[in-house]
Structures are given as C-alpha cells and as structure tokens.
Write a structure and sequence with these properties.
By secondary structure, the protein is mainly α. The chain folds into 2 domains: 3-83, MazG-like (Helix Hairpins, Orthogonal Bundle); 84-115, no CATH class. The protein contains 6 helices and no strands. Helix 1 (3-17) packs across helix 4. It is globular and about 50 Å long.
Length: 115
C-alpha cells in the first residue's frame, strides 16, 4: 500500500465513523476545498513575500493544518470519483513538462499560451 493509499484509507475511516458519507459528493467537497484553500490564503494576507517565508512556529502549524484540510478534500474527491491520484499526478506532470519546456520558461512566470 502506498502512502497515498494509506491516507485515502484514513480519510475513508474518518468519514465513515462520523456518518458523513451522505454529505460527501464531489460538488460539496469541491466547494469545501475552496473554503479550506481560502483559509490557507488568509494566513498570508497582508504579509510581504519575505514575511511569508518567516512564519512563526505556531503560524506554520496553523498553515499545515489548513493544507491538511485541503489535502483531505482532494483525497476524498479522488476516492469518490475513483481517480488514481498518483497516476493522475504523473500524467499531469508529463503534460506540464510539454507545456513548459525549461528552455522557454526558465525564470519566467508566464502561462503556456503566452510562450
């Protein structure tokens, strides 16, 4: 069992123990992930770029918890839709490598449509 599969099993059990399956569908979870992502963003609001790298241990812990909430949502949606996240990630990285060849994008923050 891969680490990702272990995480999926942990999330499944957590949801099942609380009887939340009835509330978990891809639409609701996608909306919840957006809320959780906004909670990550909230920790960086008004910080400078430099400050965003120098979070206090407590703030880093809070950000870690919010990122974990986002990850839980991603894992749950993938589980419900029977998506192999590891395979999807590998496929998407291959596509990204094609869209963003190093020789064309190195040091540039542009969308592939602007190359």
């Amino acid at each position: 069992m891969t680490q990702l599969e272990e995480l999926r099993a942990v999330v499944r059990q957590f949801v099942s123990e609380r009887g939340w399956d009835q509330h978990h569908n891809p639409k609701n979870l996608a909306m919840a992930m957006t809320v959780e992502a906004a909670e990550v963003l909230e920790h960086f609001q008004w910080l400078s770029e430099a400050e965003s790298f120098r979070l206090s241990p407590e703030k880093r812990r809070e950000v870690a918890h919010e990122l974990s909430d986002v990850l839980m949502g991603v894992i749950r949606v993938a589980d419900l839709l029977e998506i192999d996240l590891a395979a999807a990630f590998a496929e998407k990285m291959a596509l990204n490598r094609e869209k963003y060849p190093p020789e064309k994008v190195r040091g540039r923050a542009v969308k592939y449509t602007e190359l």
